[in-house]
Write a structure and sequence with these properties.
two-stranded antiparallel ribbon, 232 residues
């Protein structure tokens, strides 16, 4: 079965609307952009299109999201570097990129072959408490590093990085609560790219936000199904 036919089977009409929104707006902004070099616009567009396929497949619990994510992350590193969002650069280059392989390994091991979705689970109260402490400590300490590097919007950059660090770890570990953190990450990052004046990345992250809300809904259902199917 071809990759396109698999996407058609895996994705709902709502998710296809998300994809078409990002692709359409990205191409429009790419064709009308006169402020940035053509190669920057091209890289930003590739990042946006691969990124939306990645997140909609992740929301659906499909391990194929990691293949799209590798290209998205690689392109996004370049865009973030040129915009001097060094927190985003380090997050993607040093954390997201290597964990793509780790995540693919764990999702493959815990994949429901019958439903063709990952086996989702729910966090316990102690894990939630530890996650919040880690996030607060990361924001406080990481901002100092970004200020020293001369980065832009350092509070926003530090906050998005801290929340994303924990959210990605929860994604690899298959926790549904990752989507609550992704919602926070997406809100912050939309503001960052508005400040940077990049309409393609702004559009991508805005649709990511919509997808994160949808992902929380889908993964809540997945985790309940797995809990009901597990022996007591």
């Amino acid at each position: 079965m071809s990759a396109i036919r698999q996407l058609r089977r895996f994705m709902t009409p709502f998710q296809w609307c998300e994809v078409l929104a990002v692709v359409g707006f990205s191409l429009y902004f790419a064709l009308t952009d006169t402020a940035n070099p053509w190669w920057y616009v091209l890289i930003s567009t590739v990042s946006a299109i691969c990124g939306i396929f990645c997140v909609v497949l992740c929301a659906a619990g499909k391990k194929s999201q990691y293949y799209w994510g590798f290209v998205n992350i690689s392109a996004y590193i370049v865009v973030a570097w040129l915009s001097r969002y060094y927190g985003e650069v380090m997050l993607n280059a040093l954390y997201y990129l290597p964990t793509q392989f780790v995540g693919l390994y764990f999702w493959t091991r815990h994949y429901n072959r019958q439903s063709q979705t990952v086996r989702a689970k729910k966090m316990s109260a102690p894990v939630i408490a530890v996650s919040l402490v880690v996030i607060a400590a990361c924001i406080w300490g990481y901002r100092s590093i970004l200020v020293w590097l001369g980065g832009n919007a350092t509070w926003l950059d530090a906050a998005s990085t801290a929340f994303a660090l924990v959210a990605n770890a929860l994604m690899v570990l298959r926790y549904r609560e990752q989507w609550i953190l992704w919602i926070v990450v997406d809100i912050i990052t939309v503001v960052m790219w508005i400040l940077a004046g990049d309409p393609i990345q702004t559009t991508m992250w805005a649709v990511f936000l919509v997808n994160a809300v949808y992902g929380l809904y889908v993964w809540t259902k997945l985790s309940r199904s797995e809990a009901a199917a597990s022996p007591t």
